[in-house]
Specification:
alpha/beta, 4-stranded parallel beta sheet, 3-stranded antiparallel beta sheet, globular
Length: about 240
């Protein structure tokens, strides 16, 4: 007989020392996998919609014995244009979260919890990574946009630190502008430039708006699959 386990709600998990215990007092062993797939490119979902829901892909995760996944959330999908009120999600951001909720629902139906990861890799695809919206790039006469990166470059993850030329310089400047919370992007209109200036605040407020969106599901009880959120992996600071 196949093993069957009903996970209950992630809200019932209790941290005891370095472990989790569920509502029945059982210690929980989390066996996880990164569920990213095509998340780093539009439409920023791990499985690209192709008509019917790809149930076999979800079923396979459960069959392999996983009970938790790391699910990427991409800032570029949440705030594709700078929001004057970034604590309020854009219509595009809400549509994206509704699609992402479908993924979370499908995973939970198969007994998997979800760890949400607000993800970036060296800021943007022009540098060989992903995550930042186009408007969050730092662009001025001293820091023009480089030619797009070659995605066959196996050393892409170190481009900002060890790369040479305009791409590395631009990447470091964009990341420094983010951490200093002072953005200049000459490709924006004057009004957009003013709205986007405090770029790190935009990201933080978008995280808060996203967390509230998930919390408001199920009459304010949140989604039973979600047991944690990772805000951001630290990038280089200049």
């Amino acid at each position: 007989m196949a093993y069957s386990y009903t996970p209950g709600s992630a809200r019932d998990l209790e941290k005891v020392g370095t472990r989790f215990r569920d509502a029945d007092g059982r210690f929980v062993t989390l066996r996880g996998v990164n569920f990213a797939g095509s998340s780093k490119a539009p439409p920023f979902l791990p499985l690209r919609p192709k008509g019917a829901v790809p149930n076999a892909d979800y079923d396979r995760l459960a069959e392999l014995g996983f009970n938790v996944v790391r699910l990427l959330i991409i800032w570029k999908a949440l705030e594709p244009a700078p929001q004057a009120q970034p604590a309020t999600l854009s219509a595009e951001g809400i549509r994206y979260l509704e699609q992402l909720r479908g993924v979370v629902d499908a995973l939970y139906a198969r007994g998997l919890f979800v760890f949400l990861d607000f993800h970036q890799d060296i800021a943007h695809e022009i540098y060989g990574g992903d995550g930042f919206p186009d408007w969050a790039l730092a662009v001025d006469p001293d820091h023009p946009l480089p030619q797009p990166a070659d995605f066959k470059d196996k050393q892409w993850a170190t481009n900002y630190a060890t790369g040479i030329g305009d791409r590395s310089k631009s990447c470091r400047h964009t990341l420094a502008s983010f951490w200093h919370n002072k953005l200049r992007n000459d490709r924006l209109s004057a009004n957009e430039r003013e709205i986007a200036r405090n770029v790190r605040d935009h990201f933080a407020k978008t995280i808060g708006a996203t967390a509230r969106w998930f919390q408001n599901l199920n009459g304010g009880r949140g989604h039973p699959a979600i047991y944690g959120v990772r805000a951001f992996q630290r990038a280089a600071r200049d």
